[in-house]
């Protein structure tokens, strides 16, 4: 995830900015940069593709950049590859403004067109360069006025650090749906997107609200609300250690990432629903070519494979195209029935999973058009695919994927609705209704996070279990697999998932007195069926936990399951994204009670680049 820092004071800024960037390195990034105003009022700029260490070298550890006011950035590529030209800060055409940006400008294409018509030239593929040029275009000598005019033009989510060479010592910090925190000092002030970059300088901070912007000088921070009205600074003290700050105050990265899901989903979804349409910028298959597709094959490994299993229901239901979901490690050695009329969807958080790459190459060689749904920009899979849709979850550090999985589901859901519309399977009203359902998902996930204390409680029931079974039908059977994998990989408890209807064909023999069985009942049409499976296993001694949507299911399940967990209701085909949250939390708390190494489970690697 990108990191921003801005500093203005009486000391040299560059070493402080570099140290701030180093502190934010743990978030993951692929390029870095810094802009500092020289004592003569010149803008000094250094950007590197790769690590912050390169920036230290380029600026002689900062010594080559005199001046006490500057901004810096670590970039996790979204718009444009992780090259030096696309690194931030981005500078306006006449070199007056420098901007570091986290987030996405949704209306960048229209703004860019307008600026090009006015004669502005662009040197990067970023949406941020548009912001720098908009500032230049609005500038009549008043820095604050230029910032306000620029803000009135842009849409999207962003945090900005803005520097103007004409106004040494003065910076602007802007926040909208992307974090930014002001740090108050004596003879200096600074701000950053991450508290880790502040705590070695000050413990006095002000958390900005969405829409706020601040004018920051060495001896004053003036805060304004979106409408331009001045706001009082509500100062708080940060008492966490540096190590705690890196994990956002959570004990483990996995928990931090579970709680980042609403924001990651918002980023993945919001910028793709624009002007009443789903806009898949990097997917350029015309509706005619889509109509020629006879089947879709989804391939992936591990949780990404389970995301594919869940996403299949949305695509088949809405597009009425057959979808096969295949394990990449198997597909690569099949003689797959794939040709030019097959669309291959490849799912991968890292974009580097060896089996997935091999399966993709095999299918590509047979003529399949490849759409990759990937989190890491410019990763091998992203580069090899014909089309790429990024999940924009930000870096995932815990080995057990959480936000990687849910954002994959989000992109599959967007794709399903988009393709159904292109194929003429949804009329305008239905299309709008499905988009609305997708738009609501981040908020529902946020509500599901409130189950955390309840799941910590339930974990006590699981912690000494030898085996745990997960059951579900239809979309719930795909979810059951992800739930079981989460529990296995971090708590080391043997867990298996079964399609609930399969129980009586063998699995039921495994049940013993007290065996925990987690029954997923989110598919409302099949609720009664799964409820009778709960009764079946309970009669054989199982301790049953039902996970179901709030509403009608509550009454049915209260009378048959030992424990119930109710999640916010969503459409059946999207329910996995919501109901996985308590399963992630349950796995986490069970592993914690068992004293396991949660972020780095034994025998596992984050990215499996071997066969
Ligand atoms: O990076 P990828 O999405 O391609 O990784 C695929 C699997 O290795 C990954 O999902 C793995 O199963 C996770 N550890 C599950 O939490």
Q: What bound compounds does this protein have?
A: 5-amino-5-deoxy-1-O-phosphono-D-mannitol
Instruction: List how many beta strands DSSP finds.
Output: 27
The biggest sheet, with number of strands, parallel, antiparallel or mixed sense and barrel status, is: 8 strands, antiparallel
Total count of domains: 3
Coarse morphology? globular
The named CATH superfamily of the largest domain: Aminohydrolase, N-terminal nucleophile (Ntn) domain
| CATH secondary-structure class of the largest domain | Alpha Beta
Strands side by side in the biggest sheet = 3-2-4-1-10-9-11-15
Note the main attributes of this structure:
611 residues; alpha/beta; Glutamine Phosphoribosylpyrophosphate, subunit 1, domain 1; Rossmann fold; 3 domains; 8-stranded antiparallel β-sheet; 7-stranded antiparallel β-sheet; 20 helices; 27 strands; 36% helix; globular; binds 5-amino-5-deoxy-1-O-phosphono-D-mannitol
What does this structure look like?
This protein has 3 domains: 3-244, Glutamine Phosphoribosylpyrophosphate, subunit 1, domain 1, CATH 3.60.20.10; 246-439, Glucose-6-phosphate isomerase like protein, domain 1 (Rossmann fold), CATH 3.40.50; 450-593, Glucose-6-phosphate isomerase like protein, domain 1 (Rossmann fold). 36% of the residues lie in helices and 23% in strands. It contains 20 helices and 27 strands. The strands form 5 sheets. Strands 3-2-4-1-10-9-11-15 form an 8-stranded antiparallel sheet, covered by helices on one side. Strands 5-6-7-8-12-13-14 form a 7-stranded antiparallel sheet. Strand 9 and strand 10 form a beta hairpin. The chain is globular, with a radius of gyration of 25 Å. The mean pLDDT is 92. 5-amino-5-deoxy-1-O-phosphono-D-mannitol (M6R) is lined by residues 301-304, 348-350, 353, 356, 399-401, 485, 489, 607-608.
């Amino acid at each position: 995830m990108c990191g921003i820092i801005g500093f203005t004071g009486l000391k040299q800024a560059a070493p402080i900015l570099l140290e701030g960037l180093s502190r934010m390195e743990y978030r993951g990034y692929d390029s870095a940069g810094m802009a500092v105003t020289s004592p003569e009022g010149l803008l000094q700029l250094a950007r590197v593709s790769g690590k912050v260490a390169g920036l230290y070298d380029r600026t002689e550890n900062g010594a080559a950049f005199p001046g006490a006011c500057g901004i810096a950035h670590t970039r996790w590529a979204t718009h444009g590859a992780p090259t030096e030209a696309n690194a931030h800060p981005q500078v306006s055409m006449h070199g007056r403004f420098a901007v570091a940006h986290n987030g996405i400008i949704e209306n960048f294409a229209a703004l860019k067109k307008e600026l090009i018509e006015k004669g502005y030239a662009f040197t990067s593929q970023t949406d941020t360069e548009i912001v720098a040029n908009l500032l230049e275009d609005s500038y009549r000598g008043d820095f604050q006025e230029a910032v306000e005019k620029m803000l009135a033009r842009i849409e999207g989510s962003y945090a900005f650090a803005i520097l103007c060479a004409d106004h040494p010592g003065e910076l602007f910090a802007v926040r909208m749906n992307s974090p930014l925190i002001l740090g108050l000092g004596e003879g200096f002030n600074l701000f950053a997107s991450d508290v880790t970059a502040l705590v070695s300088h000050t413990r006095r901070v002000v958390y900005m609200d969405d829409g706020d912007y601040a004018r920051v000088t060495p001896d004053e921070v003036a805060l304004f609300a979106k409408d331009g009205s001045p706001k009082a600074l509500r100062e708080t003290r940060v008492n966490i250690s540096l190590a705690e700050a890196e994990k956002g105050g959570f004990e483990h990265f996995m928990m931090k990432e579970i709680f980042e899901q609403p924001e990651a989903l918002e980023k993945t979804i919001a910028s793709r629903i624009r002007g009443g349409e789903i806009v898949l910028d990097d997917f350029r298959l015309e509706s005619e070519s889509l109509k020629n597709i006879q089947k879709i094959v989804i391939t992936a490994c591990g949780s990404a494979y389970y995301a594919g299993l869940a996403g299949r229901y949305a695509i088949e239901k809405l597009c009425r195209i057959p979808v096969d979901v295949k394990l990449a490690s198997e597909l690569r050695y099949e003689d797959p029935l794939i040709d030019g009329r097959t669309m291959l969807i490849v799912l991968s958080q890292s974009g580097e999973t060896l089996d997935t790459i091999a399966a993709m190459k095999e299918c590509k060689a047979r003529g399949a058009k490849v759409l990759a749904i990937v989190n890491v920009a410019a990763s091998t899979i992203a580069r090899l695919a014909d089309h790429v849709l990024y999940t924009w979850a930000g870096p995932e550090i815990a080995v057990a994927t959480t936000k990687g999985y849910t954002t994959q589901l989000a992109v599959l859901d967007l794709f399903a609705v988009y393709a159904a519309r292109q194929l003429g399977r949804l009329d305008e009203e239905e299309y709008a209704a499905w988009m609305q359902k997708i738009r609501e998902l981040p908020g529902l996930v946020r509500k599901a996070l409130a189950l955390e204390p309840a799941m910590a409680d339930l974990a006590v029931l699981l912690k000494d279990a030898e085996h745990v079974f997960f059951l579900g039908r239809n979309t719930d059977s795909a979810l059951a697999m992800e739930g079981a994998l989460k529990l296995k990989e971090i708590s080391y408890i043997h867990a298996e998932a079964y399609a609930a209807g399969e129980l009586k064909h063998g699995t039921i023999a495994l049940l013993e007195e007290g065996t925990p069985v987690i029954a997923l009942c989110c598919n409302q049409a099949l609720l009664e069926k799964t409820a009778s499976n709960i009764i079946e296993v309970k009669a054989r001694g199982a301790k049953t936990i039902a996970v179901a949507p709030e509403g009608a299911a509550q009454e049915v399940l209260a009378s048959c399951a030992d424990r119930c967990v109710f999640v916010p209701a969503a459409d059946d085909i999207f329910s996995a994204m919501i109901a996985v949250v308590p399963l992630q939390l349950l796995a986490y708390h069970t592993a914690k009670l068992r004293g396991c190494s949660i972020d780095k489970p034994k025998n596992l690697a984050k990215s499996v680049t071997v066969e």
